[in-house]
Amino acid sequence: MRVCVIGTGYVGLVTGACLAHIGHHVICVDNNEEKVKLMKAGQSPIFEPGLSDIMLSAIQNQRIEFTTDMEAGVTHGEILFIAVGTPPLPTGESDTRYVEAVARGIGAHLNGGYKVIVNKSTVPIGSGDWVRMLVLDGVAERQKSLVTVGGGTADQRAAELDTKFDVVSNPEFLREGSAVYDTFNPDRIVLGSNSPQAISLMQELYTPIIERQFAADPALPPVPVVVTDINSAEMIKYAANAFLATKISFINEVANICDRVGADVTEVAQGIGLDSRIGNKFLQAGIGWGGSCFPKDVSALIHTADDYGYEAHLLKAAVNVNQRQRLIAVEKLQQVLKILKGKTVGLLGLTFKPDTDDLRDAPALNLIEHLNRLGTKVKAYDPIVSQTGMRHGLTGVLVETDPERLADGCDALVLITDWQQFRNLDYGKMASLMNNPVMIDGRNFLDREKLQRAGFYYVGVGH
Ligand code: UDX
Ligand code: UDX
Predict the structure, then answer these.
(1) pLDDT tens digits, residue range 19-34?
(2) Architecture of 237-324 per CATH?
(3) Among 54, 210, 220, 223, which residue has the fewest nearby CB atoms (within 10 Å)?
(4) What is the CATH number of domain 2-228?
(5) SS3 281
(6) DSSP string covering 282-335
(7) Are 42 and 56 in contact (CB under 8 A)?
(8) Which residue's alpha carbon is nearest to atom 28 within ligand 2?
(9) Residues 240-287: pLDDT tens digits?
């Protein structure tokens, strides 16, 4: 099928490349010329495992193109994905101005056959009708300009535009760091629309994935497809992320109580996770959740509830627990080192989770700011950020090029991100380079005994 994906960020580029990989012909549109130049040369602007390989093979098979030309993309696609970012505003609401610009832009170029416009971006509940209105506004503006430029009556000109379309909500559930895997192995596909024609085209688009033709285990039963109304589809996205974030805040709260009563949260998580009603995933205690989705989606849902006069107490509590948890390492550093002023702390990892270069709303950023305020010097080593240098605009932290340079002269290390390679560093050597071999394991990720053998005073979260 002919697909256009507008916005080639973490979600759009993965979606476009994966749809090309399963056999569709995809045009990816982005208004960032530099990004488009990179992608045309076969380079991914983001670090995402497996993405470069499928991008390159799709380019070689002529199944994917990259352009800044919205008209070319809209003309090409029978299915048009809106995948631009919806970052949070200071009020907690989503900033939907990019979705608005794209929806109008689609309207301005619609002409030729029925199209399905898909909201892939996480948009506030009720955005389906709003996008339809904006697309129609774009169409109307174009009609006006045709009337001015061309001859004939307004009706004659307008009738020449073929602008039939439906809007579908098709939220993404891709985890950064495993987004390609998640695309080919989804737990479910959610389609929100009241148009049978649009739903049927979306099902056709996803058939190879539904039938698990590209799955790690093709023998599994087909992927469940949830067909629902557009508002429910939008709510499913928010509710899923809010639930997962709340689950993590819950285990973090339990960890804090474990710390006080002398229980081990890892054992507790295993013990409760074996109950199939609870499940063992997303029960890893640590320094809190971050990233481009959980914080903004939970805030946006709280804000939506507020718009309707409902105070979302539970969600607010999940956010409050998380804000406090992000600074749990400071509490632990103070317990061990007492005075932090004039000390040097090294952070192992900066990104909000492993296998990504994404620093959006990363707990490390709050910690750096807070330690700086206490007069502590902060250094960091991150497998990706250290390689890509200072393009991230980090302040208040000296980014080191390897773990041993990081350890040199530190009074304590804090493990921030559970990068696999951190399990096997030369901790004996690192301890010998430190003023004080203290390790605050912010993800309960390292082997306590191994660290102790290497000479570290080891502190985890909740045990
Ligand atoms: C996506 C979503 O769409 C968001 O709603 C969801 O919650 C998380 O995932 P993400 O892929 O992280 O956002 O966004 P980002 O990495 O910021 O990429 C957005 C892309 O859209 C950028 O490449 C940007 O250049 C492009 N863009 C933005 C346009 O092409 N046109 C615009 O008008 C605005
Ligand atoms: C999330 C959703 O999981 C995904 O479905 C999509 O909607 C986009 O948003 P992502 O933000 O990429 O994905 O990462 P995720 O794996 O969900 O982790 C989010 C944060 O929670 C990270 O900071 C991670 O470190 C933290 N986390 C996760 C925990 O602290 N404990 C856990 O047990 C799991």
Answers:
(1) 999 999 999 999 999 9
(2) Orthogonal Bundle (1.10)
(3) 220
(4) 3.40.50.720
(5) coil
(6) T---SS---SSSHHHHHHHHHHHHHHTT---HHHHHHHHHHHHHTTHHHHHHHH
(7) yes
(8) 282
(9) 999 999 999 999 999 999 999 999 999 999 999 999 999 999 999 999
On average, the pLDDT of the chain sits at: 95
159 pLDDT higher than 90? no
- Written as six digits, the tokens of 49 are 């495992």
Please tell me whether the overall predicted TM-score, pTM, comes out greater than 0.70 for this model.
yes
* % of residues, the chain, pLDDT over 90: 91
Residues of the chain with CATH 3.40.50.720: 2-228, 326-459
Q: Which atom of ligand 2 is nearest to the CA of 10?
A: 12
CATH topology of domain 326-459: Rossmann fold (3.40.50)
- Give just the sign of the alpha carbon dihedral 12, 186, 302, 365: negative
Delimit the CATH 1.10.1040.10 region(s) of the chain: 237-324
Token output for 447: 């082997």
10 lines ligand 1 (CB under 6 A): yes
Annotated active-site residue 28? The verdict is: no
**Residue with CA nearest ligand 2 atom 20:** 289
